[in-house]
Every structure is written in structure tokens, then in C-alpha cells.
Amino acid sequence: EETTFEELGGAMVHNEISGNAHFACESDEDALETIRDLLDFLPSNNLESAPKLEMGDDPLRVCEDLDTLIPDEANIPYDMLDVITSILDGNDFIEVHQHYATNAIIGFGRLDDRSVGIIANQPMVQAGCLDINASDKISRFIRTCDAFNIPMITFVDVPGYLPGVDQELGGIIRHGAKLLWSYAEATVPKFTVITRKDYGGAYLAMCAKPLGADLVFAWPTAEIAVMGAKGAVEVISSYRKEIAEAEDKKAKTQEKIEEYEKAFNIPYLAAQRGYIDDVILPSETRIR
Q1: Which pLDDT tens digit goes with each residue over 130-158?
Q2: Are 55 and 110 in contact, with CB atoms under 8 Å apart?
Q3: CA–CA separation, 152 vs 189, rounded Å?
Q4: Distances, alpha carbon 138 to alpha carbons 46, 89, 102, 262, in Å
Q5: Mean pLDDT confidence for 89-98
């Protein structure tokens, strides 16, 4: 069966699979329009600040819709794009690499008329896990923002790095390291907002305080820990011992999971230890 030119090097192949292309445009006109939109966010060179555009959107606008966005159940997804568009001027967001590594979101928007680079996990795809392609996509974008003096805001909901043989053999450690290096090396202002899960190595990789974040905010729904409650209960010896001795192991496991969540899966512990600067209401995110 022959491979067509489209399959080998078509627009969508390079947008979705290889990641060589950042945008897919319908026509010449659409391509020119997209370039204009993109250039609006960028300075002419690396020595200038990004251009300001009058957006007419009150910087003190409250985003009430965000207070009810996060589902009660931790394993139910929500669309991170709703968070991003809610806080940006005019709800206007230009997504870069929209079709590639869709478990991560990158793109440009404005806050108080100024350009900002947005980086986020997307809980709708693979629960927002980081993998090789997402790491490459984000680290390259961080480098672009840093080169053109554009501050970055990172929205975090990440349960960890994607496990599996393919990822390990493909060099997830090497690709994941690029992400940490890019954040650590960037000198533009870096802000982080933790909306929900923020676990383990992925916690560090998504611009945590030790990686040089200038300000880290957490929503009350944030869970900052080495691992999820279920995993922790399975490996902590005192919990394991109690479960092994229990008559109803399933009920005991559930009891211990809830106990762990109440004790550790809350943002206030991280705030006490200085890993986050403040626990904020989601609706205040734009103001802050």
C-alpha cells in the first residue's frame, strides 16, 4: 500500500504527528491573518518589549465562572481553555501548536494590554500528563517567550509523567529535563497557578517555586504532593500494615485514602512551607 504525499508530508501530518508545523491554515488569506495576529504579540526584536494594545478590559474584572469550574470528583476532567480564556483580556487567546501534544496547551494572550505567554496542562487529554511531545512543545515555547521578553503564566493540573515502555525508551527523562532546564534558565517574569493536581516530578517541571517561579498561586482545590493519595497509601508502610491486618481491606484502604487526602492533599501545607505564595479564589486569578 503506497503512502500518499499527504500522509508523508501534508499540513495536518506536520501539525499533529511530527510537530514541525505550529499552525494549520485554511487558505493563503487565513495564513496571512494568522501571521498578523501572531506578530501583534511579539516585539520586532529581542531587545524590545512586546507591544501593548488597548484591549479595554478591566484588569480588576472578577472571573466568577471559575469558582464552579473544577469538578468535585478529582478524576473528572474539565477544559483548561475555559480557565485561560476567562482570565485573558477580551477572552482572547491565540493557541500555538494546537493540534500537537494536545495534553499541553501553549499560546499568547494579553493581561492589562500586555503580551503574556500561556502554558498549561489539559486535563481533557491523558488527564494532563506530561510526555515526550508535551515536554518538547512546552520547552520550545518557553525559550521563545524568554527570547522576546514575554512574561509567562503556567496553569497546572498534572498527575505526573506518562508511564510506559514507549516513553521510557523514547527518552522521557532526557526530554523532560529540557522542560526543567528551560524554565530554570528563563529570566522573564514567571507566574504559576495550581488549579488541581500537582504531583511528583511533574510538579517541579511545571514551574514550581524551586525552578524560579516568581509567584505561585494555588486554588483551594490544589493537591500538591509527591504522589496521589491512592499511590501513597499503597507504599507508606504504616498504612500498608493497617490495611493488611484489616478484615475489610477495601474499606480500610478507602479510609486511609481519605485520611491522607485530608492531611496532605491541601494547598495550605505547601503555603506554610513557602512553596506557594497564596491560596486564592479562582475568581480572583485575573486580578492577582
Answers
A1: 999 999 999 999 999 999 999 999 999 99
A2: yes
A3: 6
A4: 20, 22, 11, 32
A5: 96
Dihedral sign (CA 85, 100, 123, 222)? negative
pLDDT at residue 115 in the model: 97
Per residue in 16-65, pLDDT (tens digit) is 999 999 999 999 999 999 999 999 999 999 999 999 999 999 999 999 99
H or E element, residue 225: strand 223-225
Question: Can you give the C-alpha Rg of the chain in angstroms?
Answer: 21
Residue 264 pLDDT exceeds 80: no
Strand partners, 154: 119, 192
Q: What's the maximum distance between 2 C-alpha atoms anywhere in the chain?
A: 69
What CA–CA distance (Å, rounded) separates 138 from 126? 16
**pLDDT tens track for 166-198:** 998 999 999 999 999 999 999 999 999 999 999
Contact (CB, 8 A) for 154 and 179: no
Q: Is the pLDDT of residue 255 over 80?
A: yes
- For residue 190, the cross-strand partners are 152
Within 10 angstroms of residue 288's Cβ, the number of other Cβ atoms is: 13
Q: Angle 172-185/132-147 helices, nearest 10 degrees?
A: 20
Question: With left for phi above 0 and alpha for psi between -120 and 50, is residue 30 left, alpha or beta?
Answer: alpha
Kindly report the backbone phi and psi dihedral angles of residue 213, in degrees, each rounded to the nearest multiple of 5, phi listed first: -65, 135
C-alpha 178/C-alpha 135 separation (Å) is 7
Q: Which sign, positive or negative, has the C-alpha torsion 113, 65, 73, 258? A: positive
Q: What is the mean pLDDT of residues 258-276?
A: 84
Cell of 207: 514551574
